[in-house]
Amino acid sequence: MALRWVDSYDIFLFDFDGLLVRSEELHHAAYIEMCRRRGITLTWDFAKFCSIAHSPRSNGIRDDLYADFPALREQEPEWETLYAEKKACYQALIENGKLELMPGVEALLNRIAEVGARRCVATHSPLVQVAAIRRQHPVLNTIPLWITREDYDRAKPAPDCYLHALKKLNYQPGDRVIGFEDTYRGLEALLGAGAHAVLVSDPSHPQLKDGHTNSLTSVHFPTITAIGENGPFNQHPV
């Protein structure tokens, strides 16, 4: 697939988790393991986990974990301690090589590298996690600029990470900027940075079923592969 529509843009902005790599299942597994080590069985299925993780509430996972499993709060009322334990579990899963690229990512990144467009990933993930995943999937290293959580102040839906990326990419008025996200919070961040925003998310994803702020969604595809040869703004999306 030639993906000629790539030639129409000067700058490409990408989220990471859930968009370029299939990581949500590992985040869910990491929370399960964190709880298990404390003698608690996390009974949330994957759909419920995604619904909470992608809710408009910035502290949804923390609040609902403590509400549904009060023994966890009794053991450790400091959320940062629990979150650090979860991150360690997630890091171990990554190091074991249990993370895949999402469909269509390799072809798109190779095509963008071929034309030499400016490109960046802006992610909520910390550098140590990103580095481990990049070691497993060399095509990710075709993206020269990575903005990780250490690099900006306000998390999505604030546009800080993408504004920082555009500055680093030497954005100039008139540059054609397109961005890809898998969540509504990320989509809002892209729009706040002035990018043409594309939502890439399975139509069955809980965030879509729950009806979160879907007025933001102008263009939506189930996968990057589904964008196809015509490009995201030249066809009828999902």
Round the Cα radius of gyration to an integer and report it.
18 Å
Mean pLDDT: 91
Low-confidence blocks of residues: none
Shape: elongated
Biggest sheet: strands side by side, in what order? 3-2-1-4-5-6
- How many strand units? 6
SSE ordering: EHHHHHHEHEHEHEHE
Please estimate the helix content: 40-55%
Overall structural class, as computed from helix and strand content, comes to: alpha/beta
Q: Counting H and I runs of at least 4 residues, what is the number of helices? A: 10
User: How far apart lie the N and C ends?
Assistant: 20 Å
Strand content: 5-15%
* Biggest beta sheet attributes: 6 strands, parallel
Give me a quick take on this structure.
The chain has 238 residues and is of the alpha/beta class. Helix content is 41%, strand content 10%. Helix 9 links the parallel strand 4 and strand 5.
Q: Which characteristics define this entry?
A:
single chain, 238 residues, alpha/beta, six-stranded parallel sheet, 10 helices, elongated
